[in-house]
Structure formats: structure tokens, C-alpha cells
Amino acid sequence: MTDKNTEKQRSGILRFTIKLFQIILYIPIQIIFIPFAIIGLIVGMYKEMVNSKKLGVSFSAGQALQYRWFMHYLETRPDTFSVAFTKKFPCESHFALWTIMGAFIISQRLFGFKTRLSEVAEPEEANLAAISGSRVVTFDRIMEKYAAEMEQIVLPGAGFDLIALHFTKGKQVRVFELDQANTLNLKIETMKKAGIEHDWITYIPVDYANESWVDQLFEAGFDKTKKTLFLWQSVSLYLDAGIVRETLKDMADLCVEGSVIAQDFYSEAYSSGEYSFIANRNMSLIESMGEPAKFGVDMSDDPKAAVESFLAACGLQMTEYIQFGEKLDIEPFYCIVEAEKR
Ligand SMILES: C[S@@+](CC[C@H](N)C(=O)[O-])C[C@H]1O[C@@H](n2cnc3c(N)ncnc32)[C@H](O)[C@@H]1O
User: CATH number for the domain including 231?
Assistant: First the structure.
């Protein structure tokens, strides 16, 4: 027992010393980057905010792309597509991201210096700070699990996510991506400029709030008799409750046996800005860009039951429930679920 404690103490001291050296080496690198980061911040903010507005595309989708860029360079999720895409994307700056993250990236590569950004928490251990990376990886796992067995994959509100390229290239599966016209058109244009092949994916410009996405999906060749995965990542937060319900009911109607609907839900406290100051600040920025958070499930009592009954009211049976931060002593704020037609 004593030997074990001594061993533990020794490795603790070793870890602390290594970290200290890493920080000492990191600081001068960060200092060199500061003037570039100031320029990068101005360039990046301009492209993200001014160009997104000018082109009328989703700012929140650009933010999600940015996180996937970080993940690639911090080696938590390889994503050469998102990097190539960012380089040609008018609403983000590859240069700016490098100036802001460069010191971390170089320090990690040269001497293994890691911050929390360089780790991906398992969902049960993911708090608010860890949600972005953990969410991306969890949806990857879902895609990986089903890509081979499904005949169709539909991504409503796909934004600038390139997940379908990673998991469906060369597979016998039809893929449909839906989003608002400006966002989707810019996505296609940017992929062309970046030389990213995407010809097996059908892109359907649609606004769920004003048009029937189901009609458009059929027109594009969707086959109701085929087993389908619907992947609805980070979209319901930005829709009115009525549209979330209608969209889920529509998805349920399109499901044959074996079809799966995977999606995420935020809590009502989160979407109304009461959950945390930091989350609220981020949402206010997104709201100022024309995308207010609108929908959340009341997770204050029994979050699993609340989500399950919401899905049941939409004609769906919940089959998987992943509550973020479940193992931590925090208020539930986010979950990813899988469901099938009841
Ligand atoms: C936070 S982004 C998520 C994008 C993508 N799923 C991802 O994970 O990167 C939300 C997306 O929902 C789309 N969206 C929001 N309201 C919509 C609507 N009424 N019709 C179609 N798409 C919508 C936005 O254009 C945006 O691309």
C-alpha cells in the first residue's frame, strides 16, 4: 500500500515537472504568435461575421466547421476535408485560425504540450467546455455504425459538415443533404474550389420553416421503401418547437423498418440562456448573426423520460440515449439520441 502511494506520488511529481517544462517552452512560442494572432483575429472575425451576413449563410454552421478544423490540427479527429474546405471558404480564414491556434499546435507537435482542447471527453464525462468535440465524435460513431447497413442517409441541416464525405465515399448508399439555399450553394461552390469530390451526394436547398422538405426530398429521388439513417445534428436548437415536432413526425413517416433517426437535444435551460453565462454569451453572438436559439427540452426533472416522451409524441421510439455529463455532478444540458418509428 505504502509502495503504491509512493509510486503514485512519484508519477504525480513527474507529470507536474513535465507540464511545467512544457508551459515554459510554450510561453515564448505564444508570445511570438501574439502580433499575428491580433491580425488573424481581425481577419477571421471579418470573414466570419461580415462575409456570412453578406452571403446570407448560416454563421452557426461556420462555427461548427471551425471546431472541426481545430480537431484536425490538435489531432483529436483527422479531417483533411474540413481543412481543404476552410482554405477556400469565404466565411472563414485558414490563416486566422493558424495565428490563433498555432502556438498550441506547434507546442503539441514539438513537445507534447496539451490543453483541454487536445482531448475528447467521452459523452458521459463531457461538460459544457467539452461538448463540441465530444458531439462531433459521437455523431461520427453513429455514422460509422450505420453507414454500411443503410440504403439512404439524409442530413437535414447539414451546414458545412463534411461527415458524409468521410463515411459514405465508395459505399452503396444514397446520400441527401438539406439546408437553406445560400448555405448549401456556398458549400457546393467551396467544395468545387477545394477540389473535394462530392458527386455521389444530392444537395437539396430548402427552408423547413417555409417549404415542404419532404416534397423536395422525394423530388430528389428519396425512396420511402429503403432503410434510411436521418442524422440531425445541432439543428433543432435553432427551430421553433412546432417545426421540430413536425420535422420529426415527417421523418417518422418516412421510416421503414430498420431506419434510424439520430439527433441531439439541448435543455430548455440551455436554449433560454439560463444554463450558463459562457453558453449564453456564445448563443448571443449566434443570435446577433440571425440564428436565435429557440428550442430545448425540459431536462430539469428526468431528462431521459422527457426526451423519450417528446419523441413518442412525434411517433418515435427512443432506442439509444446518451446524456452528456451524466457521470459529472452537473445539471443535464444536452443529449444525443437514436430513435425508430413506433
Ligand atoms: C449549428 S448548424 C449545424 C450544421 C451541421 N449539422 C453541423 O453539425 O455542422 C445549424 C444548421 O441548421 C440549418 N437550419 C437552421 N434552420 C433551418 C431551416 N429553417 N431550414 C433548413 N436548414 C436550417 C442552418 O442553415 C445550419 O446549417
Answer: 3.40.50.150
Counting the structural domains of the chain, the total is 2
16 and 139 inside one domain: no
Alpha carbons 284 and 160: distance in angstroms, whole number? 21
CA distance 65 to 163: 11
Which residue has a Cα nearest atom 10 of ligand 1?
235
Mutate to test the pocket of ligand 1, among 70, 71, 91, 179 (most ligand atoms within 8 A of CB): 179
123 Cβ below 6 A of ligand 1: no
Identify the residue whose C-alpha is closest to ligand 1 atom 9. 161
pTM, entire model: 0.94
> Domain containing 176: what range?
123-341
For residues 239 and 290, state if they share a domain: yes
- Residue 99 banded pLDDT, cuts 50, 70, 90: very high
User: Which ligand 1 atom minimizes the distance to the CA of 136?
Assistant: 8
Ligand 1 within 6 A of 63 CB?
no
In this predicted model, what pLDDT tens digit does every residue of 30-83 receive, in sequence order? 999 999 999 999 999 999 999 999 999 999 999 999 999 999 999 999 999 999
